[in-house]
Amino acid sequence: MAKSAKKETPLMKQYNAIKAKYPDALLLFRVGDFYETFGSDAVKASKILDIILTKRGAGSDSETELAGFPHHSLNTYLPKLVRAGERVAICDQLEDPKQTKTIVKRGVTELVTPGVAFNDDILHSKSNNFLCAVYFEKQRIGISFLDISTGEFLTSQGDAEYIDKLLQNFSPSEVLVSKKSRKLFSETFGKDFHTFYLEDWVFQADYAHETLTKHFNTKTLKGFGIEDLYEGIIASGVALHYLSETRHNKLEHIATISRIATDDYVWMDKFTIRNLELYNSTNANAVTLINVIDKTISAMGGRMLKRWLALPLKHAEKIKQRHEVVKYLLENETVLQKIQGQIKHIGDIERLISKIATTKVSPREVIQLKNSLEAIVPIKSVAENCDNEALKVLGDNLHRCDLLREKIKETLNEEAPVNVLKGNTIAEGFSEELDELRGLSQSGKTYLDNMLKRETERTGITSLKIASNNVFGYYIEVRNSHKDKVPEEWIRKQTLVNAERYITEELKEYEAKILGAEERILTIEQKLFAELVTWMHQFIVSVQQNAQLIGQLDCLCGFASLAKANKYVYPQIDDSYDLEIKDGRHPVIEQQLPIGEPYIANDLFLDRASQQIIMITGPNMSGKSAILRQTALIVLLAQIGSFVPAGEARIGLVDKIFTRVGASDNISMGESTFMVEMNETASILNNISDRSLVLLDEIGRGTSTYDGISIAWAISEYLHEHPAKPKTLFATHYHELNEMSETFERIKNFNVAVKELKDNVLFVRKLVEGGSEHSFGIHVAKMAGMPQQVISRANKILSKLEKSHSSEELTDKVKTFKDDLQLSFFNLDDPLLVEIKDEILHTDIDTLTPVEALMKLNEIKRMLVKKKQA
Ligand SMILES: Nc1ncnc2c1ncn2[C@@H]1O[C@H](COP(=O)(O)OP(=O)(O)OP(=O)(O)O)[C@@H](O)[C@H]1O
């Protein structure tokens, strides 16, 4: 093998040195006009980007995979890599290859990761792109969220449950965790997040404090109201540190950090957010609440609505303020139309101004910013002059940004290009020097055109060409066939295969003037544009404020449009503990029913005095879950400031919403389904308040019937007896639970009415007072097309079971549960008991169907009866 094959080429040596610094990233290595990837990066890139994988140095020792793409396609390929979850280090040539004789200097200019991205093709306009950092202390966990594309920076701290909820709410694109907490993080918050692990030393209080104060240029963090958040500060410091690690140093738009004020907002834990399908659903095709209620027009509005939904208000006054604006906009349609008509012209000014701060902005985007700010002017005057106090304040606070708009207008050409190097960025009349050069370049061109014409005529050479190169400037090119017609005074400079190149005195004279004019024009344009961008930095905060206000206004206008389109009403919010909904509807389901099939509206009343807990029974598919969810969604909509899908609604402020569904969906988590269900429920019982709304859907379903009923019973009893008396809806198909209303005064029975036909059930979907006699599972099985044999067999087994275990018998058992604990009955050495114990221990409760459970119980009972008889 040749010795030289073993040696690294200088290029690969440079590559390896840079790659060693970014081992976790996919390195895009600029070579000439291409971005190349090598080795395992190339294998990955070729797969993700569907580009050809080749080999470099094939057959030699230094053989390595290679895949690349043209540098101008970066914007096409980069988002694909990032979306596939890659961290991408962009390594550029740091000097002009023409200027150096040795290998070109290269270095990483940006590290793009899922949580740190500017590229419009990576970002979703109506969603934030949050980078998150999580710091674990013994007692508490600190968290921060930072969106570099909008400049928002938030922090908080709390227990695992709270942090989990925030992670769910803000759904960050990337989560930073210390290496030592790697396992702890996945154990606590699961494996759904895109995580990156940083060295432990980054997670230090002093370092974080210093990073933050240095960035904000303040002595303390008092002004931000976060100085007492020890863990939160560390998490925030880590997020900022990460930005500098990924080479993001121009961060003037991250102008403030605020604390997520937990106490101001309705508490919903992650199960509730998931169960209510606010933003996403386990079913990818399902329509979520946000899909239905989002009538915003701007990107800022879309993002604001998500924030509002994540953090519903708890203060009656603030909520009412939003309702009043919506009411005003509905009553004054022209105002609504005027405002929405202007919002249509507003681009994503929040992200545009961030691009200004990071100087990643294009001339066309600056024009877009100006036009957006222009649309704000009429909005401001409409809002200021309207008859609603909150709207007026909003209008007052909008900045006209006159100076900024004027300056952009006089500096930039209205048709400015995306790339400043394309020319024509700066407006005419802005710079004398520029105008002069442009004139020169223009007249120079005309002069050359005229000269070409004249010389062609004079010499009779038809294929004359005038062009220039870097070596000897302007020249005239003559094809070989016309060589003999060349005038004597032309000086030959170069001979090509088919042509000769000449210079002339006249050309030399003009060259002095025009050569380089184009280049100088571009240099000046770049300089003036850069100056404009720097000058604009003083407006970052004003534009950010406008972005926030337009976001709010867009949301409120959206609520008005929503109320109008879907017939929502103004909800009354008060400080009572009552919840009274007349003709309530499910906002999502009602939009999805086939045309002509109406959604059946329902009334619901809950309070703490007489009707605290409602047991809702009814067959499967009758609409129990729909009633539960619509109740929560109506409260939620009301408290984010929207009107609600109902005929009428009076809502005593709710401060926590809990929902739990006893489902079998969790099997995939590998944990016992029932265990998960109980874990989730336990966290409710430990957190309830007097303003909580608790929705339990088929809790207890995850285990055998007896277990299930007992647990459901005990939970309901606990909620009833709890001094907070939380308002509760409990949907169950255990009709046995109806017995509870006899003992517990604030538990009331309702059922979702069905009409029983001969062999079938007709769903009426009306919630009516009273309990149910029995379950209807078999009817549903029939409707689902189960074979007739199975249905009739099931009916037989059911009636047999019902005979041998009347519901009274069962509920008596539960009621006298305490008495049953007479251990004296159990002589632990009794061989029968050992046998029963074995029987129970070998039963897999999680896979047992209710019928099997009853049969097993029957078996055990028979053993006992036999023993008694003996
Ligand atoms: N009020 C209503 N008006 C019209 N259709 C409804 C109404 N309520 C529910 N539905 C329809 O019935 C379907 C079943 O409702 P839902 O899931 O609430 O039933 P359920 O009683 O909770 O059933 P299960 O016990 O099987 O979960 C819904 O998907 C919806 O299409």
Structure description:
- The longest helix is centred in the middle third of the chain and has 28 residues, at 432-459.
- It contains 32 helices and 27 strands.
- With 870 residues, it is α/β, with parallel strands linked by helices.
- α15 (363-384) runs antiparallel to α16, α17 runs antiparallel to α20 and α27 packs antiparallel against α28.
- Helix content is 45%, strand content 17%.
- β23 (656-661), α24 (673-685) and β24 (692-697) form a beta-alpha-beta unit.
- The protein folds into six domains: 3-112, MutS, DNA mismatch repair protein, domain I; 131-260, 2-Layer Sandwich (Nucleotidyltransferase, domain 5); 295-407 and 532-564, MutS, DNA mismatch repair protein, Chain A, domain 3 (Orthogonal Bundle); 432-528, Orthogonal Bundle (MutS, DNA mismatch repair protein, Chain A, domain 3); 572-796, Rossmann fold, CATH 3.40.50.300; 822-869.
- The strands form five sheets. Strands 13-23-24-25-21-26-27 form a seven-stranded mixed beta sheet, sandwiched between helices.
- Adenosine-5'-triphosphate binds at residues 589, 593, 599-600, 618, 620-626, 765.
